[in-house]
From TrEMBL:
One of its GO terms (biological process) is proteolysis. Keywords: Hydrolase, Metal-binding, Metalloprotease, Protease, Zinc. PANTHER family: DNA REPAIR PROTEIN RADC, UPF0758 PROTEIN YEES-RELATED. This is DNA repair protein RadC. Gene3D superfamilies: Cytidine Deaminase, domain 2. The keyword Protease applies. It comes from Rhodothalassium salexigens DSM 2132. GO terms for molecular function: metal ion binding; metallopeptidase activity.
Amino acid sequence: MPDTSDTPDRPGNARPPSRHRPAASGAVAGPAPHYAGHRDRLRQRFRDGGAAALQDYELLELLLFLSIPRRDVKPLAKDLIARFSSLAGVLSADLGALRAAGLSERSALALKTVQAAGLTLAQAEVMNRPVVSSWQALLDYCRAAMGRSPVEQTRILFLDRKNRLIADEVLQTGTVDHTPLYPREVIKRALDLHASAIIMVHNHPSGDATPSRADIEITRQVQQAGKQLGVVLHDHIIIARGEHASFKSMGLI
């Protein structure tokens, strides 16, 4: 069933005329909708045990409660998980895909807001910190930011002399299997930011993190361009779903 939470109110917020006489004063109200108790129980389980106490679709239900206050959202949550494979897949889907799956604009925007908040929290764990001491957090952030992107994108992590992350920018977005990148632009941006080192990161939507010949060649070009102007390329990381590859660990840098 589609999400109708965006259905506009009637003019003046007037209620439609009732077909029944109003209940007499002191009359007992009708029974609560069947999903009301379920919502209360789900919230209590979350209070008691946190996210670990709930399945993905149940966490998604909790999020949908915020934008769909009066409806049983369990079927919708299960349908979304089935369509996008996981809660992470739902949150990473673009607005168009969420709308096509039956969500209203309000609900789709609410889910994208949750994703944006999560990325902000992940980024806060690595910004202005030495990358050596926060390497796992850095990988987690990169996976969250681009691991499920349907197209390739290249982001550059700019570091200061103490190897603290001072900026994180997406420089190029390409197709499903290619991203154009220009080494001079990468190094010029590093100089603009007064960065002394960089880490290249790009994703493989195919799910295979193995570097291609083109990946190896562009890495070599960026490394050479950086050497000429005193900008060190520390690593090039390829992010894929569930895995990553480090050029430094593989001996390619």
